[in-house]
Amino acid sequence: MERTYLMVKPDGVERGLIGEIVGRFERKGLKLVGAKLMKVSLERAERHYAEHKGKDFYERLLQFITSGPVFAMVWEGDQAVGLTRAMIGKTNALEAAPGTIRSDFAIHTNFNLIHGSDSPENADREIRIFFDEEELLSYDKAIQVWI
Ligand code: RTP
Ligand code: MG
Q1: Which residue, 9, 88, 122, 140, is the most exposed by fewest CB within 10 angstroms?
Q2: ipTM value for the complex
Q3: Domains in the chain: ranges and CATH
């Protein structure tokens, strides 16, 4: 089973889209194994976005992600990383396919509502940045046989 790190960004929390976004992954059939509302410290933000250090949008990105509460989540399922990236849509809402979260609710690249890990390796790395092991639950779902 694959795990991925998803995070409703401050714009999504402020706009009241946590439920809408969580509902999409629930209905898809993925399993929620950890979640919390939290404020991202600058230290965590720098670790999370290390790959973007030096890019022109880096400082703005750090400022944004630390500006208000985020809803941090870990979801589990077969191909969870790829599936959730597809459901989130391209970074720029203009290029995001209809029906994706960013196409349906976002306008601006800087305020694109949600983060999703882009590889299983990055998912493991990001999960460790935001969650302690005991915050992640293993449990069986009776309906799993259908998914
Ligand atoms: P994310 O990491 O948030 O899931 O988004 P992503 O993979 O689609 O995009 P990524 O390239 O990892 O960029 C991280 C976030 O930085 C902002 N960004 N701004 N050219 C720009 O102004 C620019 N490029 C990226 C976006 O908010 C993006 O989600
Ligand atoms: Mg990314």
Answers
A1: 140
A2: 0.93
A3: 2-140 (3.30.70.141)
